[in-house]
Amino acid sequence: MRAVSRPLWLIIIAGCWLSAPSWGQTNTYSPADTEEEFERRYQERIKKDRLNGIYIPKNLDDAIAQLYKLTEESLRQRIRAIPEDSACIYLHRRLGQWMIVNWSFYEGSRLSHYLRSAGVTHPDDMADFLILAFHRHLNGRPVEIRQLATYFREKRKQEWQERRKKGEVIHREVRQRPRPDSLPSPSVAPASSMQKKPTMPKGQ
Hints:
Layout: H1 8-16, H2 35-45, E1 50-51, E2 54-55, H3 60-70, H4 73-81, H5 84-102, H6 110-118, H7 123-138, H8 145-166
Antiparallel strand pairs: 1-2
Helix pairs in contact: 1-5, 3-7, 5-7, 7-8
């Protein structure tokens, strides 16, 4: 089985304006067992212009050209009318997911490798990067790759810092303090109990 590529205009309309049920995708990709195997597959995938029978754009201009070909004018007008600061919110769930799956942002493709080389490393950011670029193209605004890449890199960094600041608990261990009457007498304490306790690292 291979990835099912439905018409992009149908996916976006169904997802963004009609709230239709989620569109299905199937993929034959299976995770690599080792890092070496993943790297080998990755290097093979980024050289291919088609994956699962679907054409993979080679760069930003090619991606915009493909999105233009895959959409109808009526849909492009609706995308054009969305405010830029809301474009990713409205379009990520369908258009963004369509690109992530069909253009293999997680598994690796020549387009994801191109975006990674530009500084956009997370698949969701790759999709939003292309959404904003396409939106700007439709509105006749310049698309500055470095500026957009810096925006998403800083956005991802800020989100990581916010999570770190909140101090998300990964694991919590509860220890019970022994009762005073259960402690051994100093005169009969074993040698191991007299060893110096390790110092807790600062900040923990």
